[in-house]
Amino acid sequence: MPPIVIGIVQVLFDGVAFGMLLFVMSVGLSITLGMMRFANLAHGSFAMLGGYTTTTLMRHAGWSFLATLPVSFVLIAAVSVVLERVLYRRMYQAKELDQVLLTVGIIYMSIAGAAYVWGPEPQAISLPDYLTVYRTVGWFSFSTYGALLLAVGTVLTLAIFFGLERTRFGAMIRAAVDDRRVALGVGIDVNRVFTITFAVGSGLAGLGGALGINALGLDPSFPIEYLVFFLIVVSIGGTAGSVKGALAAALLLGLSDTAGKYYIPQTGAFIIYVVMLLVMLWRPNGLFGRA
Amino acid sequence: MTGVALATRGLYKSFGALRVTQDVNFTLPAGARHALIGPNGAGKTTFINLLTGALPPDAGTIELDGVDITGLPPDRRVKRGLARTYQINTLFPDLTPLEAVTLVMCERHGVSRQWLRPLARSRAIIEEAYALLVQLGIGDFAHRQTRHLAYGHQRVLEIALALATRPHVLLLDEPAAGVPAQESGMLYEVISGLPKDIAVLFIEHDMDLVFRFASRITVLVSGKTLREGPPAAIAEDAEVRAVYLGTPVHD
Amino acid sequence: MTAAEPARDSAPAPSAVADFRAQARWQWYEPLFWLGAIAWYFLLPTYLPLGTQILATALFALSLDLILGYGGIVSLGHTTFFGVGAYTAGLLARYGWQEPISCLVAAGLLAAFAGWICSFVIVRVQGIALLLVTLGINLVLYEAANKAYKITGGADGLQGIEFSPLLGMFHFDMLGRTAYLYTLIVVFLVFLVARRIVYSPFGLALRGMRENWKRMPALGAGLRRHGALIFVLSAAIAGIAGALLAESVQFVALDSLAVQRSVDVLTMLIVGGTGVLYGSFVGAVVYMVARDQLADLNPAYWYFWIGLMLVLVVLFTRNGVVGALADSAAWVQRKRGRGPAP
What we know:
The complex is a heterotrimer of chains A (291), B (251) and C (342).
Chain A: H1 3-36, H2 43-60, H3 65-86, H4 96-118, E1 134-137, E2 140-143, H5 144-166, H6 168-178, H7 180-185, H8 190-211, H9 213-216, H10 222-225, H11 227-236, H12 243-263, H13 270-282
Antiparallel strand pairs in A: 1-2
Chain B: E1 4-15, E2 18-29, E3 33-37, H1 44-52, E4 59-64, E5 67-68, H2 74-79, E6 82-84, H3 97-108, H4 123-135, H5 151-164, E7 169-173, H6 181-192, E8 199-203, H7 207-213, E9 216-221, E10 224-229, H8 231-236, H9 238-245
Parallel strand pairs in B: 3-8, 3-9, 6-7, 7-8
Antiparallel strand pairs in B: 1-2, 1-4, 4-5, 9-10
Chain C: H1 16-24, H2 29-43, H3 48-70, H4 79-94, H5 100-122, H6 127-147, H7 149-152, H8 177-198, H9 201-211, H10 223-249, H11 259-272, H12 279-293, H13 299-316, H14 320-335
Helix pairs in contact in C: 2-8, 3-8, 3-9, 3-10, 3-11, 3-12, 4-5, 4-10, 5-10, 8-10, 11-12, 11-14
């Protein structure tokens, strides 16, 4: 195979894996934003905490990488429920500025807290052997870690879509995102639906943060560093709450970021930001937004 | 007054599969008093939103004084004399009525982007704003923050803001919505006192108000014009009674 | 609500205009505030560099207050314009134009131009998309300045810049005396302009945008042109603030374009109070004095307290320190039984 084809396949593979990971991490933000109009900028703090849960369990309790992932999910979901009950719930009717400030405050506290507990240095985990090897299929070789990201991302994405489209609870979520007042009117307990959605969404962020440690990196600045990625997924994806839009935006972002790093590494994230601004100029409601 | 103030031709609007406006051809003569009625979900507010430019139509044209304004943004339509009020108060809670009306008059006089000249020097504009509030009977509350006004007074302010743009077509979206009985007299007075040269189109559920003020009525059902005619004819119309007046009209 | 309420102003014939005159009148605390800034020069000679930084930063916060506190537009990337100003002054000096006042003017103009360009995207979006766009513009500029290290010095910052003496007479001395007085005068003059903006017809339009963005077009207001104007004005002020800092420390850090600084200035403004002009000054003093005193703390932990402060301000105060002061003043007056009812 000519190298150019191999390069393209490589970019597709890594880009889609990264995009899936981004989608899994941001889908909760997209749905809760659509449902409650609550701008939780601290979403990345949940992802970071998921990552630290995994590193801590592996280092100090000797757990295996894969075994820590469900724990990260459950723990972060639980933490998020507490936070939702104690703090966020008071802010649903508040001005957007207050929501921004409150969640920025939480970002800051989580950053400082992480630096205090785990230190400022980037964390790395030693993945099990079967995740550090390269496999070759025909002329194409890929890392098993990348394959894991792709596989878990695909399974979770399918599960999310199945849950939203085919289950009763999913229908309730869609109704609440579509029109909160109507949902209340037909007897849906929107607050309860929201709490559960928020917990699952935050848990997924935690899981993504854990799964992606070796792809995304993990240090206390994580919530700020990835904030813009989450924002891109939810705004380019279209009027918050559009899950298909979020998936498309996440894949687009994953692919263009990977392609950028592969072909023009010297420009860094610059291209992504410029493209994002052009998209927002062209379609202020996002690529898939309702007019 | 003669001539057509506002006209629509073949207006269509859908939200997904839901058709909210279908082939509406509507004419509002200058100085008219026209009511738009219909059951909930008939597309009345959508129609207003199409007229003001808050929503773009899927098809059809809108003409103001014979000029096609279909593509104009909302603020340019206002400058051409088309103003509206909202069913749910859409006011400036922290501003006083005097400030709010002054704000609108500054827009109309084209001084709203003067950024170095003290506002207090625009004496004529401020006094014009105050006079409007006095004329509508809320002059006593001109200096209070809007959020502290009684609901009925807020409804009047809603109309005052629209009038401050000096419209010749005024769209009132349920002006009496939610006003308690003891405050409604004042609102009726304001509506009946609207200058005769302004063409008024109002959406209303309060049939008292409709039959009191309207000289013509359009009945909208499922986004389509069901009937149009003088109040007496509409009140007698069997089909209208069936789809609309047959249902309880007083809340 | 029975009897007609007299106008707040107790003029014999209460005219409608009196409301607007009363708003714009100088309050008793305003001269005190500026006298305090002059007193700093005499009383705290060793803290002049800190004072200079506070003044420049307060001016930066004031520029944000115009769009956020008055216009109601939330920006996560306001340091874009501060950075443009700082680099304009720095680069001019680096490449031979060292006259400080003209550098200041150039910085203001270029930042205003940047604000005008940015306004086209910014006024089209709201909510979370607005946060993304303002953040995105900030990130683009940061990355650009970082990559163009041959011109900007990249992460090392723009070093070795020097400005000629002010008016050809006053050298920028080591103790920072000239820098402090120069900054104070410029900040005061720009403040006067900002004060005029606030009490102008456009200032009223801004408050209208804050109170009800959606209603404005339905009242004949062109939000795009309003948005463009406020971004030009606000960016110019931010640019002047950036240039002031560059001139007084003779250095431009890449940090002046960092998103962190956008969030810092937002924090200051919130802690001080929005939409009250002096909130930006109070916030800058509180924030920077605290940081100066806590400089020994690991910066990572300092942000914990900032975060906590933000959360507390949002949950428990109506409008930052200034809001809390106003509330307690009103409370004391009520206690004495001679103040207005709430």
